[in-house]
Amino acid sequence: MPETVTMEKIVAFCKRRGFVYQSSEIYGGIRSSYDYGPLGVELKRNIKEEWWRRMVHAREDMVGLDSAIIMHPKVWEASGHTATFNDMLVESRTSGRRYRADHLIEDATGREVEGLSPEELTEIIEGDERIKDPADGGRDFAPVRPFNLMFETYTGPVKSPENIAYLRPETAQGIFVNFKNVLDTTRVKVPFGIAQIGKSFRNEITPGNFIFRTREFEQMEMEFFVEPGTDEEWHEYWIEERFNWYLNLGLSEEKLRKREQTEDQRAHYATRGVDIEYNYPFGGWSELEGIANRTDYDLKKHAQYSGQRLEYFDQANNKSFIPYVVEPAVSPDRIMLAFLVDAYTEEELNGERRTVLKLHPRLAPTKAAVFPLSKKEPVSTIARELYDDLKGDYRIFYDDSGSIGRRYRRQDEAGTPFCVTVDFDTIEDKQVTIRDRDTLQQERIPIQAVRERLQGLISG
Ligand code: ATP
Q1: pLDDT digits (tens, 9 = 90+) for 268-292
Q2: Residue closest by Cα to atom 1 of ligand 1
Q3: 334-383: per-residue pLDDT in tens?
């Protein structure tokens, strides 16, 4: 029986194998900031590359963008973030701790209260349900108040109000403000999308659950511009497309579901929102990705605040319109946590226990390891030549220390899907053994064929 995966196990594993470290650890660490180690950075890059490949390179109706983190402050006025990008904050007078009011109530009562006003939330907290401070059981809270999640900074040497700038809380606005640039400089035609990957920042009141909710994170967002009236159909399309992306990369179907956002949970401008949720080991189903119908809200607002025409001219039908927008938005950090949890397996093998990370070959940080059975000539030279031939396109690992069994275990834990062993027979028959991480099947093939064989196995 495989053992249940807990967050403690995953966090310890990520540290031990160099996937994720606490940031600034030598100084005692800083809460909710993490650094991606040698294996973690490969896994996260592979996630982003798979997204980009499927969203941009494999399509005719998509272009990419990389916009700045610091934008004109008017962008955030127009988008509504300055006024309304708030979480409801409540402070306990007994412990001094601060909580997100919606989370505090939901955890205590199971009631969904997203979207309620500060007054309504205060009333619930002070009401019959007698919400307690999880830290000390206290029941004395200050009134709930909105708290803006944007990080503020200043541009230039003078810290005056007119120099205030923000670290972007979403990458999407960089896409909307470049809508006209892309229309004018490329040959895109509606329906088309603009995709972007980059860092976002939110001063979350209660970050937590490892890399699930942090104050600095990456986002992969895509804005798909469509003719009004076709938006609902496209929304359906993108929900399916994104859901299938996870399945194709091997995420367990029974741990993945779609959930319709309620009116209270939806952003005020969205007509419909669907979350793709994953059943994480902390507290169950949680949002992995959100797919929203943002309507023409953002383009209209930016047109209004900038005084520019942000319309699309449809030459075929000789008419102009402001497109509607369908947006899939997700963080590769959250995706990485889902894939790690999903892939992490402790199992019994020939009377021995092994930990194995059953990641899809496309996501695996290291695609293959090369093992010479002996450190001596000519086995080591043949192995080294094979390694030199394979490296470059992918991360390949060369390991000549310890027993073969131990070398396998190390690669199993790192999620390496294929191990290639050069042995004494190789000298004569010019063949090597490829071992599959999951099935443990071994196949003997000519050394000349390894490169092509691996390519097939990884992309298949
Ligand atoms: P939540 O309700 O969990 O705070 P949200 O609904 O505000 O999230 P969106 O604004 O829809 O989140 O953000 C889009 C995506 O960005 C989310 O689905 C998630 O993958 C990611 N994301 C948002 N906030 C964070 C964060 N603090 N840390 C990591 N990823 C995040």
Answers
A1: 889 999 999 999 999 899 999 999 9
A2: 287
A3: 999 999 999 999 998 778 889 999 999 999 999 999 999 999 999 999 99
Indicate whether 286 and 218 sit together in one domain: yes
Do residues 183 and 279 share a domain?
Answer: yes
Residues 145 and 90: their CA atoms lie apart, in Å, by 7
Domain count, the chain: 3
> For a pocket test of ligand 1, which of 219, 246, 268 has the largest count of ligand atoms closer than 8 A to its C-beta?
219
The answer to whether residues 67 and 196 touch, using CB atoms and an 8 Å cutoff, is yes
* CA 134–ligand 1 middle distance (angstroms): 24
Query: How far, in Å, CA of 76 to CA of 81, rounded?
Result: 5
Q: How far is CA 169 from CA 51, 82, 219, in A?
A: 21, 11, 10
Q: Which domain holds residue 121?
A: 86-148
Task: Please answer whether residues 436 and 417 qualify as being in contact, where contact means their C-beta atoms are separated by less than 8 angstroms.
Answer: yes
DSSP element (H, E) containing 46: helix 38-52
- Average the pLDDT over 205-211 and give the result: 95
Q: C-alpha distances in angstroms, 166 versus 293, 406, 455?
A: 25, 50, 44
Please indicate, yes or no, whether residues 305 and 255 belong to a single structural domain of this protein.
Answer: yes
Euclidean distance between CA atoms 394 and 390, whole angstroms = 8
Q: 418 with 433: CB under 8 angstroms?
A: no
- pTM (2 decimals)? 0.95
Last residue of a domain, which of 341, 374, 399?
Answer: 341
Residues 332 and 408 occupy one common structural domain: no
For residue 213, report the distance from its CA to the centre of ligand 1, in Å.
Answer: 7
Q: Which residue ranges have their beta carbon within 6 Å of ligand 1?
A: 202, 204, 213-214, 217, 219, 287, 289-290, 329-331, 333-334
